[in-house]
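To illustrate the input format used throughout this study, we show a single complete record. The first block contains the structure-token representation of the backbone; no residue identities are included at this stage. The design step must infer an amino acid for every position from geometry alone.
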């Protein structure tokens, strides 16, 4: 079992920045994929960003490209999401996901690729 704990959400104004963090613990795999998704009220969970095992390859949703940056520290089993120039439409609950089956970003852009999820952290951006 893998446990994920997100932190860093909050209430900010448009144009501000936030940094989300997610720490993995428990019986982690030797190599694994990580990603961030978000879910707004009444909407499906949507892909935000993902990063491969080595951290060299990343991929982003078009809506966040150039504003968000995903990074990971395998020694600490953490993944971070730096969010800059936040917009009201970024308001959602943000979830980090852990995949023991896929480590390539090509396969990490759908929720079905992930085996474990964190509890989520609320990000609210006011206009």
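Output of the design step:
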């Amino acid at each position: 079992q893998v446990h994920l704990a997100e932190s860093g959400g909050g209430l900010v104004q448009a144009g501000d920045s936030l940094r989300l963090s997610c720490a993995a613990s428990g019986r982690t795999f030797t190599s694994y994929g990580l990603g961030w998704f978000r879910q707004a009220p009444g909407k499906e969970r949507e892909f935000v960003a993902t990063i491969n095992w080595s951290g060299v390859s990343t991929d982003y949703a078009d809506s966040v490209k150039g504003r968000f940056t995903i990074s990971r520290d395998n020694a600490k089993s953490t993944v971070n999401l730096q969010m800059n120039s936040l917009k009201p439409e970024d308001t959602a609950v943000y979830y980090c996901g852990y995949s023991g089956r896929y480590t390539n970003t090509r396969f990490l852009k759908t929720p079905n690729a992930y085996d474990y999820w964190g509890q989520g952290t609320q990000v609210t951006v006011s206009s």
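Structural context for interpreting the output: The mean pLDDT is 95. The two ends are 40 Å apart (CA to CA).
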